[in-house]
UniProtKB/TrEMBL annotation:
Domain topic, free-text comment: Consists of three domains, a large central CORE domain and two small peripheral domains, NMPbind and LID, which undergo movements during catalysis. The LID domain closes over the site of phosphoryl transfer upon ATP binding. Assembling and dissambling the active center during each catalytic cycle provides an effective means to prevent ATP hydrolysis.
Function recorded in the entry: Catalyzes the reversible transfer of the terminal phosphate group between ATP and AMP. Plays an important role in cellular energy homeostasis and in adenine nucleotide metabolism.
A molecular function (GO) term: ATP binding
Subcellular location as annotated: Cytoplasm
Protein name: Adenylate kinase
Biological process terms in GO annotation: AMP salvage
Species in which this protein is naturally found: Candidatus Profftella armatura
Enzyme Commission designation: 2.7.4.3
Keyword Transferase carried by entry: yes
SUPFAM superfamilies: P-loop containing nucleoside triphosphate hydrolases
UniProt cross-references to PANTHER family, sorted A to Z: NUCLEOTIDE KINASE
Keywords attached to this entry: ATP-binding, Cytoplasm, Kinase, Nucleotide biosynthesis, Nucleotide-binding, Transferase
Amino acid sequence: MRLIILGAPGSGKGTQAMFIKKKFHIPQISTGEILRDIIKSDNKNYLKTRISNDIKKGNLISDDIIIDLVINRLKCSDCINGYLLDGFPRTLSQAHAIKEAGIVIDYILEIYVSDSEIIERISGRRIHIASGRIYHNKFNPPKINGRDDFTGELLIQRDDDTIETIRNRLSIYHKQKKILLDYYKNLKTFKIFGFPRYYKISGSFSIDKVRNNIFSILVKK
Ligand code: AP5
């Protein structure tokens, strides 16, 4: 199973990706996580500074960097039975690049949430940096305030979870999403080999209900 999980920043992609990877035993390839790992690494190089500055502003990282990272990641042995792409592709060039690499995507799951809900979700989000576990002060609180449930370590707020940045991220997302979905629709219209099945899921329900709705789609197929 090779699937793309698509959705606005804060729509719940990362939260749901954790459930999907566990149930279907496939790795979650989150470009946001890969980039945050590069930022927190000890390397002091130009690339790290560039990535960090772009993420703080909510801008996209250049296609050449991202495509290289993802194509290399997909060559790892854990991807042999499929994977979940979380946050990739985000541009037409990225979508083209995976197609050119001979990668066939089976499903696109779009999680839809209104922009006003997104702002509340992003401002209350806290993460455990080492594991990528995601919490929310109100909707998914940790057992002990500000601490990870499993390690007890401190939770943090992401640098790009500010109101200004989120507005920029949302506006980029809406523009890019249309371009991407048009691209995949065209593959289907012209019956080009390897067009994915597309499902749009409301992300406005509780975390558990969204998870069940996603599972019912993936299990039936
Ligand atoms: P990335 O990390 O991919 O961020 P994003 O797409 O903006 O998505 P988020 O991680 O913010 O949100 P999410 O949808 O995963 O929501 P979550 O589950 O956490 O990318 C970060 C940056 O990296 C980009 O801005 C860009 O600069 C760069 N980048 C990444 N990929 C790139 C690419 N391909 N090309 C170029 N640049 C790239 O949930 C949010 C909150 O809501 C949490 O607190 C959660 O607990 C809560 N929540 C979740 N579900 C529910 C629910 N159903 N009800 C109530 N609360 C919920």
